[in-house]
Specification:
By secondary structure, the protein is of the alpha/beta class. Helices cover 45% and strands 11% of the residues. The structure holds pyridoxal-5'-phosphate. Pyridoxal-5'-phosphate (PLP) binds next to helix 8.
Length: 473
């Protein structure tokens, strides 16, 4: 029996085998292929055998199949770190949604936190103007982002009263997710621990895994207002920890954190030499009159607790405040050394966002803010409608003070299986929500509804949920 050491010699062997014309010869061929360990090719040939069972097969088709398979199966070994990247909640729900749609259900999708509201026209106009300007068409180096950095620094100072240097303390991002996922590459060595909220936003964990770090999940529960208890972190984990990631108003629980909690977090990180990240996408989605309480928002910035920026970096996005999720634009503000380190990583990965989109973002940050207020009012109304409707069907849920999410404790019969609740719900009613466990182990027993539909549709969703709960008792 010949040995095939590589794909090329295997292919020529296969071509020689064309003289075999019957099924048992194909099995011989499979045997030869198996010797060279091309598992993908073996499985494709096996499928082919099944299709051709008992019949003379077409050698031309077979040789095309073999060469295609060989191309795909050439000794491809992907990085081990990919094994840690579990499919996230959004991907998990996709299959169940597809089944619901294919069985004729009308989908009400409350599973994704992607705003359905349009971007304000003055922002779109700024982007349109840029499109016609050839100066915006080339690569954008850091210098070219200055106007955006200044706009972001001014926006921040007006809102939170902390002085920001736009040259050293601001970095444009291709969305906040991109920044929080890349930062671990700049600050973690393989094996270092990152302290993450559980439940929490999936890409925070993804970034740590990409940097070959380890995760210590800081379990957050209703009992503690969904805030972590720092003293619960074991000493041996603490000594290996380099990074802590917080994010309030919190996705998925909608919890908010007071300034005193951030002060405690800053002191803790300073004491243990830990870098403190605050992911802050819901800075504006707050259902509370912030107008009268300048710099005293119920959702403080981490830099108010660390105005010298000793350990902290904060991530912002225009996805939520300005309904610009599809444009992929955000920024980091904070400790200059951390900004510089993240910039170093990004310099190897991207050339910044398109200048036209930065111009749109400048228009958003410096222009009229009525659109932000309008969006807040819309989400407040949706929140009230949804909570009232849930209460009416006997599902008591606390009223969140921020974000676009309702974090609801599941009825007892579903409390151990939020994935089953969500997949059954969407398959039988067409209402899609996100299973709590998809955001981390401590999210089990909950479901997250994103308020990304009009109030009338939210009411229809709750009616369907009620029918589902009755039928599943
Ligand atoms: C906590 C958190 N971080 C980041 C993001 C993504 O933000 P961006 O669109 O800026 O990447 C989201 C979106 O839902 C989020 O909830």
């Amino acid at each position: 029996m010949p040995e095939f050491s590589n794909a090329k010699s295997l292919l020529s062997g296969c071509v020689r085998c064309q003289q075999f014309a019957y099924l048992h010869d194909l099995y011989c061929l499979m045997w030869l292929v198996r010797l060279s360990n091309h598992t993908l090719l073996v499985s494709q040939l096996r499928k082919y055998c099944l299709i051709q069972q008992g019949r003379v097969f077409n050698l031309d088709i077979l040789s095309i199949l073999i060469s295609n398979s060989l191309l795909k199966s050439t000794k491809m070994e992907l990085a081990k770190r990919l094994h840690s990247l579990k499919s996230n909640v959004f991907a998990d729900m996709d299959a169940a949604k597809a089944i619901a749609v294919s069985s004729g259900k009308e989908l009400i999708d409350l599973s994704l936190g992607s705003s359905d509201l349009p971007t304000e026209s003055h922002i779109i106009e700024a982007i349109k103007l840029s499109l016609d300007d050839p100066h915006t068409h080339g690569y954008l180096l850091f210098r070219g982002t200055e106007n955006f950095r200044v706009a972001a620094a001014n926006w921040y100072e007006t809102k939170f009263g902390v002085k920001i240097d736009p040259h050293t303390e601001v970095l444009p991002l291709i969305g906040s997710q991109e920044g929080t996922a890349h930062l671990p590459l700049a600050v973690l060595n393989p094996g270092d621990f990152a302290l993450l909220l559980d439940p929490g936003y999936p890409s925070h964990a993804g970034g740590v895994y990409l940097a070959s770090g380890q995760i210590y999940p800081m379990s957050i529960t209703e009992k503690n207002g969904f805030l972590p208890v720092f003293n619960d972190i074991p000493g041996d984990v603490l000594t290996q920890s380099k990074l802590m990631v917080l994010s309030y108003p919190h996705n998925p629980t909608s919890a908010i954190a007071p300034l005193s909690f951030f002060q405690e977090a800053v002191a803790f990180c300073q004491q243990h030499n830990i870098i403190l990240v605050h992911d802050f996408p819901y800075v504006d989605l707050v259902f509370h009159d912030q107008e009268n309480s300048k710099h005293k928002s119920i959702v403080p910035s981490i830099l108010q607790a660390d105005p010298e920026k000793t350990v902290s970096i904060e991530f912002f996005t225009l996805s939520k405040s300005y309904n610009m999720g599809g444009f992929r634009i955000g920024y980091a503000i904070g400790n200059a050394e951390l900004i510089q380190a993240l910039r170093k990583v990004k310099a190897m990965v991207d050339f910044n966002q398109y200048l036209g989109i930065l111009n749109g973002a400048i228009a958003a940050l410096t222009g009229p803010q009525e659109g932000v207020k309008k969006a807040v009012n819309i989400f407040r109304q949706r929140r009230n409608t949804f909570i009232n409707a849930l209460n009416k069907i006997g599902w008591e849920v606390p009223t969140p003070q921020a974000t676009m999410y309702i974090w609801a404790k599941l009825p007892p019969q579903w409390r151990n299986n939020s994935i089953k609740f969500c997949t059954e719900l969407v398959k039988t009613t067409g209402v899609a929500a996100s299973p709590g466990v998809g955001f981390g182990k401590s999210g089990e027993g909950y479901v997250r509804f994103a308020l990304v539909q009009e109030p009338e549709i939210l009411e229809v969703a709750v009616t369907r949920i009620a029918q589902f709960l009755i039928s599943s008792k």
